[in-house]
């Protein structure tokens, strides 16, 4: 008996499976949502039917099926084995997944739940985490169609001890997409015309699906004309013909163009728009430095701010023209190589300075408002938004310019005379004092150099005497008061005396007469000598002057 008992115990120890291992069993009954499984050696256990179902599917188990289960404990309080189908599947799955991870192979699974930051995936018994960024190549708004669908995944990392597995669906898609892109790109060539579907529209262009690979159609390659936004021309889902401009074999980037399939309007620009010809155009864009004007679709020219107005020099272009406004412009320059046309707006209107010069010759009287007062003169507003300037020296005949200008204020309406028009420098010179004529010119209009005139003494000074002729003041220096040095004394004259003097200079610019008593005496002596004697006759100067005086009396 002792030997039999020893053999029995040895047999039980050898054949009874160890706890914590996977054993085979047979389904002997299905009741109350559980499957009763006989694992041999008079051990039976219960497993919930849901452990036999894949996510989203009904349990697939019937009586008589052989299944593998995980033996957690040989006997519980009720004398039953504690077994688990799910843990058996997990152990089996981990073995399979570790081999796939080592071989960098794909695994099959199904997304069955949503968790923070991603989704849960059943990999045939093992649960993995699928981050939201690894679901697709682009963000997925609705993952509903992907739930419960069996599909391949790539294992990114796994830790059996912690029970963590991270998978990616995006890696599979990118790989297949790369293969597809390589195939499609291999069939494309630069210059080829292909058909595509507009997939996405951005500020700078549109992405076009060429059948598995996207190409970028930049906004500048959509049309020869200016396109502010791609949505002006294209819409998502639209089928279009494009030309392959460039293919980057390394990055698989494809540049596309639409305008290349159309005739380039620049081929005819030089013939259609000769220099100095005038055309109508539409303002398409306004900048700080000018305005762009469309002459025809695809052909734009720039009107520089300096060519916009004859008179508005420091004004923003937006205050002269507005977007979409139709304007007349003149072609100033064409650069075919740089595809640039320089246009002029002011050239379509006559130069207002030329018009003013024609209608207001020198001497014309004008009237205008004082626009500005500066340290060197007055600016008077004239016709056609042009200004004329009255210099300080042209304000008054009698006052200093600095004093005379104090009498004027902005907004005053004044009259003036046009003295000069310089159309090249765009300057108009005016004179207020010329309105009353030139009193100096009127006073000395008939006076010539060398002439003897009579003046009236108005003041006696140490350096000479002040005299007046027809209202014009002059000064005779002491040295010019007499031929005789002894008589060069200002005090021998009195205010109110009438004195004959000789005109030595007429300076219209400084408005001064040069006068001299000495010059008159010298001239008279010379004349007397010429008429009544000479130094060779033996007559004295007194005799000669006496004879001249006597003849004068006769």
Written description of the protein model:
GO terms for molecular function: mRNA binding; structural constituent of ribosome. The protein is α+β, with helices and mostly antiparallel strands and 554 residues long. The protein folds into six domains: 17-86, Nucleic acid-binding proteins (OB fold (Dihydrolipoamide Acetyltransferase, E2P), Beta Barrel); 104-174, Beta Barrel (OB fold (Dihydrolipoamide Acetyltransferase, E2P)), CATH 2.40.50.140; 188-261, Beta Barrel (OB fold (Dihydrolipoamide Acetyltransferase, E2P)), CATH 2.40.50; 265-344, Nucleic acid-binding proteins (OB fold (Dihydrolipoamide Acetyltransferase, E2P)); 352-431, Beta Barrel (OB fold (Dihydrolipoamide Acetyltransferase, E2P)), CATH 2.40.50.140; 439-531, Beta Barrel (OB fold (Dihydrolipoamide Acetyltransferase, E2P)), CATH 2.40.50.140. Helices cover 18% and strands 39% of the residues.
Query: How many domain units?
Result: 6
Query: How big is the Rg?
Result: 57 Å
Could you give the distance between the termini? 202 Å
Mean pLDDT: 83
In which range does the helix fraction lie? Answer: 10-25%
What name is given to the CATH topology of the largest domain? OB fold (Dihydrolipoamide Acetyltransferase, E2P)
Question: Given this structure, which CATH class of the largest domain is correct?
Answer: Mainly Beta
Family: Belongs to the bacterial ribosomal protein bS1 family.
Function: Binds mRNA; thus facilitating recognition of the initiation point. It is needed to translate mRNA with a short Shine-Dalgarno (SD) purine-rich sequence.
Keywords: Repeat, Ribonucleoprotein, Ribosomal protein, RNA-binding
GO biological process, one term: translation
């Amino acid at each position: 008996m002792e030997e039999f008992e020893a053999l029995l115990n040895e047999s039980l120890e050898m054949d009874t499976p160890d706890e914590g291992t996977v054993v085979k069993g047979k389904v002997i009954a299905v009741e109350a949502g559980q499957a009763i499984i006989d694992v041999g050696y008079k051990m039976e256990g219960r497993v919930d039917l849901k452990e036999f179902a894949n996510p989203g599917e009904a349990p697939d188990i019937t009586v008589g099926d052989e299944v593998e289960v995980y033996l957690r404990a040989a006997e519980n309080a009720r004398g039953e084995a504690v077994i688990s189908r799910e843990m058996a599947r997990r152990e089996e799955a981990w073995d399979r997944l570790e081999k796939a991870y080592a071989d960098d192979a794909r695994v099959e699974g199904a997304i069955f739940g949503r968790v923070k930051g991603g989704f849960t995936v059943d990999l045939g018994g093992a649960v993995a985490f699928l981050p939201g960024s690894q679901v697709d190549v682009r963000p997925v708004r609705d993952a509903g169609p992907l739930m419960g669908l069996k599909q391949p995944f790539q294992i990114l990392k796994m830790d059996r001890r912690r029970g963590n597995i991270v998978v990616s669906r995006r890696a599979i898609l990118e790989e297949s997409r790369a293969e597809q892109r390589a195939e499609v790109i291999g069939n494309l060539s630069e210059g080829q015309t292909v058909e595509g579907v507009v997939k996405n529209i951005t500020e700078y262009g549109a992405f076009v699906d060429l059948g598995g690979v996207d190409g970028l159609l930049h906004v500048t390659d959509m049309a020869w004309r200016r396109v502010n936004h791609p949505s002006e021309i294209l819409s998502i889902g639209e089928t279009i013909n494009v030309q392959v401009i460039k293919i980057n074999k390394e990055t698989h980037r494809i540049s596309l163009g639409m305008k290349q399939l159309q005739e380039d309007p620049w081929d005819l620009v030089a013939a259609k728009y000769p220099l100095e010809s005038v055309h109508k155009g539409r303002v398409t864009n306004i900048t700080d430095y000018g305005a762009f004007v469309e002459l025809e679709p695809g052909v734009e020219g720039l009107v520089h701010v300096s060519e916009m107005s004859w008179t508005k020099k420091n004004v923003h272009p937006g205050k002269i023209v507005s977007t979409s406004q139709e304007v007349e412009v003149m072609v100033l320059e064409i650069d075919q190589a740089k595809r640039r046309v320089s246009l002029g707006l002011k050239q379509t209107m006559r130069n207002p300075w030329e018009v003013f010069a024609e209608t207001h010759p020198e001497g014309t009287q004008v009237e205008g408002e004082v626009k500005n007062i500066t340290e060197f003169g007055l600016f008077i507003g004239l016709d056609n938004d042009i200004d004329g300037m009255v210099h300080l020296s042209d304000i008054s005949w009698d006052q200093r310019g600095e004093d005379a200008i104090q009498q004027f204020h902005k907004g005053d309406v004044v009259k003036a005379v046009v003295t000069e028009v310089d159309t090249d420098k765009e300057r108009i010179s005016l004179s207020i004092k010329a309105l009353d004529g030139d009193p100096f010119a009127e006073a000395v209009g008939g006076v010539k150099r060398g002439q003897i005139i009579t003046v009236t003494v108005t003041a006696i000074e140490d350096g000479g005497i002040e005299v007046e002729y027809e209202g014009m003041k002059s000064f005779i220096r002491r040295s010019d008061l007499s031929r005789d040095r002894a008589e060069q004394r200002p005090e021998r004259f009195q205010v109110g005396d009438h004195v004959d003097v000789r005109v030595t200079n007429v300076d219209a610019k400084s408005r001064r007469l040069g006068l001299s008593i000495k010059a008159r005496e010298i001239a008279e002596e010379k004349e007397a000598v010429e008429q009544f004697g000479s130094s060779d006759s033996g007559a004295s100067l007194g005799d000669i002057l006496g004879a001249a005086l006597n003849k004068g009396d006769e």
